[in-house]
């Protein structure tokens, strides 16, 4: 039977850790490679954490970097090593299978695929290494005793972003830019639109997806994000929310150049060092506690009680949220109050957020 678990509330801060641009690798504390897991006594016997990044890789200041922050926190807290591996351009499922297989063969435990694109690979490799715990982020299609499906109510965080955007906009005209036209990103748009319209039913909302498939660079092309933002700003939008991974950096830089608001995603992008020059124009970020999910899975394996089944983050367990790091946002007391009220309504169940 699958065991559901709440994402640790304490771990939500992981998503906003300042990330160092260090190289891939592992510490010298790893043990000899084997298909091993935590024993029933709770003693960890793996080599360390194996983390395989999604499109865009480490340095996206968003989704992948949030996962890396979770790895860093777990390494420090539990005194274990980790290895993080970058994706290749135009890679196939076979490439992902090989990557996860190599991590499992080397004795890393857990082995985590960052992103739904790892679904087929996790399904195949987990079956070959039943004593290793696997995790996959943003996918719940892999059903196995040794797999944790770490998913989120992205639409809830996006609803709060929509409320903030509508309350902040001076033109009643906002924008949404999705990286790839897929159901996962539709959840971000659906929540954003619903949240904005809860404030102003007649608000105008620009919406654009950068590509049809991930392979076309929708999550990894800042130039595409910049061009899309330029078009929406020219059309009149004065607040733009992106759910586009690395491409979102282009959205943020263009918003800052045109002196309009941007809303970040996944990590607290106001606090990211690579975006420091533009942070005055980052209103907030719709958080998805990917780092907390990574940390919680590692913790469970380290303690000999590996998570499995669907582990879903929501507003009620701090798995998603809205970052308020920007002092300019905090000074907008009416906006903050509206977002807080919306958050409580979702937690109480008086508001159900759309996913389509």
Present the secondary structure layout.
Blueprint: E1 48-52, H1 63-78, E2 81-85, H2 93-105, E3 108-113, H3 119-128, E4 134-137, E5 147-152, H4 154-168, E6 173-180, H5 183-199, E7 204-211, H6 222-235, E8 239-243, H7 248-257, E9 261-266, E10 282-288, H8 290-302, E11 309-313, E12 320-323, H9 327-330, H10 333-348
Helix content: 25-40%
Largest sheet: 6 strands, parallel
Sheet with most strands: strand arrangement: 2-1-3-4-5-11
- Note the beta-strand portion: 15-25%
Structural class: alpha/beta
Strands, count: 12
Order of secondary-structure elements: EHEHEHEEHEHEHEHEEHEEHH
Return Rg in Å: 20 Å
Mean pLDDT, rounded to whole units? 89
User: Separation of termini?
Assistant: 29 Å
Q: What sort of overall outline do the alpha carbons produce when their principal axes are compared?
A: globular
**Total helical segments:** 10
The low-confidence runs, each spanning 5 or more residues with pLDDT under 50, are: 1-41
Oligomer: single chain
Describe it for me?
With 356 residues, the chain is α/β, with parallel strands linked by helices. 36% of the residues lie in helices and 19% in strands. It contains 10 helices and 12 strands. The protein has helices at residues 63-78, 93-105, 119-128, 154-168, 183-199, 222-235, 248-257, 290-302, 327-330, 333-348, and strands at 48-52, 81-85, 108-113, 134-137, 147-152, 173-180, 204-211, 239-243, 261-266, 282-288, 309-313, 320-323. It has a 6-stranded parallel beta sheet with strand order 2-1-3-4-5-11, with helices on both faces. The protein has a 6-stranded mixed beta sheet with strand order 7-6-8-9-10-12, sandwiched between helices. Helix 1 links the parallel strand 1 and strand 2 (81-85). Helix 4 runs parallel beside helix 5 (183-199) and helix 6 (222-235) packs across helix 7 (248-257). The longest helix has 17 residues, at 183-199. It is globular, with a radius of gyration of 20 Å. The two termini are 29 Å apart.
